[in-house]
C-alpha cells in the first residue's frame, strides 16, 4: 500500500496498519510527534484506531529539544 508521508510516496510494510504502527516503524515517540492525517490533526489517543489506507496523506511533525 502506498501513502504520502510528508509529501513523499511511501510503500508501507505490511505490518504498518495504523498510525501507531507507522510511528513505531520509524521509532518515533508519540509524545513528541504531531500527526496530520488527510489534512486533519488527530489526537494521540486516536493513533491506534486510525487505519492507514492507500493514498492517505500523513504529515509528521517531530519535536526536537536543544538549545
Task: Give an overview of the whole structure.
The chain has 67 residues and is mostly beta strands. It has a single domain (2-62), classed as Ubiquitin-like (UB roll), CATH 3.10.20. It has one helix at 19-25, and strands at 2-5, 8-11, 33-37, 40-42, 57-62. It has a 5-stranded mixed β-sheet with strand order 2-1-5-3-4, with no helix packed on it. The radius of gyration is 11 Å and the shape is globular. The N and C termini lie far apart (39 Å). The model has no long low-confidence stretch (mean pLDDT 94). This is Sulfur carrier protein ThiS. Pfam families: ThiS (PF02597).
Can I get a quick summary?
The chain is mostly beta strands and 67 residues long.
Order of SSEs, N→C? EEHEEE
Main β sheet profile: 5 strands, mixed
The strand line-up of the biggest sheet is 2-1-5-3-4
Number of strands: 5
Question: Count of helical segments?
Answer: 1
Beta-strand share of residues: 25-35%
CATH architecture, by name, is Roll
Protein name: Sulfur carrier protein ThiS
InterPro entries: Beta-grasp_dom_sf (IPR012675), Mopterin_synth/thiamin_S_b (IPR016155), Thi_S (IPR010035), ThiS/MoaD-like (IPR003749)
Organism: Halobacillus amylolyticus
Pfam families: ThiS
Amino acid at each position: 500500500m502506498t501513502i504520502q508521508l510528508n509529501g513523499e510516496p511511501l510503500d508501507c510494510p505490511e505490518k504498518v496498519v495504523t498510525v501507531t504502527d507507522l510511528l513505531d516503524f520509524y521509532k518515533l515517540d508519540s509524545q513528541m510527534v504531531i500527526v496530520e492525517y488527510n489534512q486533519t490533526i488527530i489526537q494521540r489517543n486516536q493513533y491506534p484506531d486510525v487505519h492507514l489506507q492507500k493514498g492517505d496523506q500523513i504529515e509528521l511533525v517531530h519535536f526536537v529539544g536543544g538549545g
